[in-house]
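Q: I'm building a small set of examples for a reading group on sequence design. Run inverse folding on the following structure and report the sequence directly after it, with nothing in between.
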């Protein structure tokens, strides 16, 4: 058993399968969970900082700060329920999100990170909500799945049989490729214009 597998067994959640069901690299899972946990905490702190805008009669910054604190708390609840184990609903909310595909979490984090920046454009909201947005981007990349090997991509490109998500038939696809190649123009290099007055 490798070192990363031992660490993975130590870090797995209760009731989680010992064998992962997806092809996401381990470092990407830990990057998403780590950035979500740390970024949620920083977003809460910076939300408090943005909410002090009420001292200068900036109501929009107060609302943005409260929103950012709630968004940071939600991210911590989902990513690190052990930080909020004194609340009884935290584990069930975290388990609910664990059963959903990665793009649910990615879309949720991206959507909840935007209103604070829209309401109050300040450094604290940009950085705090940016960490939540970055967590959403990582989960979005995780939802794309594992990239194929170089050899597999070469064979599919050479054969032209992979129709892709559009469902284009291989004969239509090869016809489209041939017309694109037939209509290609040669590339020529022209030097700088020659000035006869010099």
């Amino acid at each position: 058993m490798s070192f990363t597998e031992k660490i993975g067994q130590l870090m797995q959640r209760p009731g989680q399968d010992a064998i992962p069901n997806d092809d996401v690299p381990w470092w990407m899972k830990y990057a998403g969970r780590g950035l979500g946990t740390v970024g949620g905490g920083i977003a809460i702190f910076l939300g408090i900082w943005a909410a002090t805008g009420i001292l200068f009669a900036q109501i929009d910054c107060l609302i943005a700060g409260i929103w950012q604190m709630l968004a940071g708390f939600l991210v911590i609840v989902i990513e690190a329920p052990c930080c909020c184990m004194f609340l009884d609903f935290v584990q069930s909310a975290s388990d609910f999100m664990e059963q959903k595909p990665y793009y649910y979490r990615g879309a949720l984090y991206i959507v909840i990170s935007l209103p604070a920046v829209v309401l109050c454009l300040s450094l604290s909201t940009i950085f705090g909500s940016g960490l939540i947005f970055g967590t959403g981007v990582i989960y979005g990349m995780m939802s794309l799945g594992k990239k194929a090997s170089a050899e597999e991509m070469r064979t599919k490109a050479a054969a032209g049989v992979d129709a892709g998500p559009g469902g284009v038939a291989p004969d239509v696809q090869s016809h489209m490729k041939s017309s694109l190649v037939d209509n290609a123009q040669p590339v020529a290099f022209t030097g700088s214009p020659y000035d006869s007055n010099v």
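DSSP finds eight helices and no strands in the chain.
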